[in-house]
Design brief:
The protein is built from 6 helices and 27 strands. The chain has helices spanning 18-23, 141-150, 197-200, 309-313, 393-397, 509-519, and strands spanning 12-16, 41-43, 53-55, 65-68, 71-72, 90-98, 111-116, 124-133, 158-171, 175-187, 189-192, 205-208, 211-225, 228-244, 256-274, 277-294, 318-321, 324-326, 332-348, 355-372, 375-382, 402-409, 412-432, 435-447, 477-486, 494-500, 521-526. The protein is globular.
Length: 532
């Protein structure tokens, strides 16, 4: 069918429908990737492995806004989506490509809003299993080259994606439930092929790079009275990848073991106060944890700031040759907890609805603690390829012509904050039956997020010209103006336009870098002696 044209919105939006969510194949089972079905979207290549959808003119994932059930679904450090949800628990995905109304902030790009499913009076569900095996795969360039030179068989690959959805009534017409699970388990390999087996055969070949992702979703809805609804929903996700950034000329030790734990609890209350007034309240508690270890390390969770010797024991020095990189010192733990309160109030000024007002306030507090072990063992860079076998100390001792040695130390802990206050008011006014004017004003305050409390006395040398306590940005008033004009009053030709100020949230990853630069010593020695 020809899609219905929205005649009263000045912003450019599109909707991924329930039918598309159910039937369009998504290899990663990450629902947000369905936003790429719509024009004005693209992928941000700087985001590895995670959802990389970039919306509108922002140019990066970090400058788009992602919301689920009316609350924020973003990490404070990088701005990328914090959590995925089972596709069976998603009702709708709306993508606002540009010209966002005043109710949306924290973005200079676009907005993706997701609404989750609730149960109905009918008990219904589904179960699925999607299976792939190496017999269905062609060899890629590296695998084919490895096969041609060594006779190695096609690498192992087996993928299972499975789950179920079940929803129904607890009390007919009054209380309903819905649960959904989604899991992906991939047994796969990466191929290390330097093109110089005479020098690096000890580290070439196929290596396991297994991955799994498990998601669970549960939602409870209750019709408290004829005009009041309550819902509670819980999202849970676990993600594990054996070796990120391995393969090709990067050895199986050159990447990192990545583990992520994501959770979110959201409570919502909707109150219909009259035929023209609605109030919506939302609360979110969302803890997130990230662990990055050397790729061949044991699969053990580490606490932030735990710098016991065992944590460093699995690191190796890094050796970089023109055709091979071996070793890694990747090691990071990050813990973040997102607290969010939000209230929105809507009303119409007359029964005819000439003015539709909406206003709201929100408060967000997202403390983030992370550590960086640095690079205590160092990285050696060599100008020429030469024999290298990590299991043969003789070849390591015989290396020559290093051009650079780099290291950093000691390990540090960062305590970062993202604190936001948001307020807006907007009016959708219809001065004529074929003309809608959208007016709005938004205010965003980000505070305590710029290392304002940094104590300069903790640094070994005085830092002139720096007074972090004066860092602030209190003037972020953002007027918004838009219109939608139905030219022929038929819904066939619509002219839209808008103007406004848009302020993006400053991601606190950059302020963690400031602390690391001041607390960690970076060492660079050009043309060093070797091995000392």
């Amino acid at each position: 069918q020809v899609p219905i044209i929205e005649t009263t919105r000045s912003e450019v939006t599109g909707v991924v429908t329930q039918q598309q969510i159910e039937n369009v194949p998504v290899p990663t089972r990450q629902t947000l990737n369905l936003a790429l079905l719509l024009p004005g979207t693209n992928t941000d290549g700087s985001v590895p492995r995670r959802v990389s959808v970039s919306i509108g003119a922002g140019g990066a994932v970090s400058q788009s806004a992602f919301l689920v059930d009316g609350v924020t679904n973003q990490q404070s450090t990088g701005g990328d989506p914090r959590q995925d949800f089972p596709q069976g628990g998603i009702r709708e995905v709306r993508v606002n490509v540009s010209q966002a109304a005043a109710e949306f902030g924290g973005t200079t790009g676009g907005v993706v809003t997701i609404v989750t499913k609730s149960g109905t009076n009918t008990l219904a569900g589904e179960a699925f299993e999607f299976f792939r095996d190496k017999a269905l795969n062609a060899m890629n360039r590296f695998e084919q080259a490895n096969h041609d030179t060594t006779g190695a068989p096609k690498p192992e690959f087996r993928q299972n994606q499975f789950g179920f959805t079940l929803g129904g009534p607890l009390v007919r017409n009054r209380a309903h439930f819905l649960v959904a699970t989604d899991a992906t388990a991939v047994d796969q390999s990466i191929i290390v092929n330097t093109g110089k087996p005479a020098l690096y055969s000890a580290v070439e070949g196929a290596f396991p790079n297994n991955q799994y992702r498990r998601m669970f979703f549960a939602r409870f809805d209750s019709q408290l009275t004829s005009g009041q609804n309550f819902f509670a929903r819980w999202g849970w996700e676990r993600d594990n990848l054996t070796c990120q950034s391995c393969g090709g000329t990067l050895a199986s030790t050159a990447g990192s073991l990545v583990q992520q734990r994501r959770n979110s609890l959201v409570l919502g209350h909707d109150a219909v106060l009259s035929s023209r007034m609605l109030n919506e309240f939302r609360f979110q508690w969302a803890p997130f944890a990230f662990l990055n270890n050397p790729s061949e390390a044991s699969n053990v969770w580490t606490d932030v700031g735990d710098f016991a010797p065992a944590r460093f024991a699995e690191m190796t020095p890094v050796y970089r040759f023109p055709s091979l990189t071996y070793g890694t010192t990747s090691n990071k733990v990050q813990i973040e907890t997102w607290w969010e309160f939000r209230d929105d109030f809507s009303f119409q000024t007359s029964k005819g609805g000439n003015h539709s007002w909406k206003m709201g306030v929100a408060s967000v507090r997202a403390p983030n603690t992370e550590d960086l072990t640095g690079n205590p063992l160092g990285t050696w860079t060599f100008s020429t390829d030469q024999p290298f076998d990590p299991n043969n100390p003789t070849t390591i001792a015989a290396l020559s012509k290093p051009t650079q040695f780099t290291a950093s130390m000691p390990a540090v802990v960062h305590d970062l904050e993202t604190n936001l206050f948001q307020a807006y008011v907007q009016d959708s006014w219809r001065p004529a039956s074929n003309l809608t004017v959208n007016l709005g004003l938004r205010y965003d305050l980000q505070y305590g997020s710029f290392n304002q409390s940094m104590d300069l006395a903790m640094f070994p040398k005085p830092l002139p010209f720096i007074n972090p306590s004066t860092r602030q940005d209190h003037n972020n008033f953002q007027p918004r103006l838009g219109f939608a004009w139905d030219v022929n009053k038929s819904g066939g030709s619509i002219v839209r336009g808008s103007y406004g100020f848009y302020n993006g949230v400053v991601r606190n990853g950059s302020f963690g870098t400031e602390l690391a630069n001041l607390l960690q010593t970076s060492i660079t020695i050009r043309n060093p002696s070797y091995p000392d």
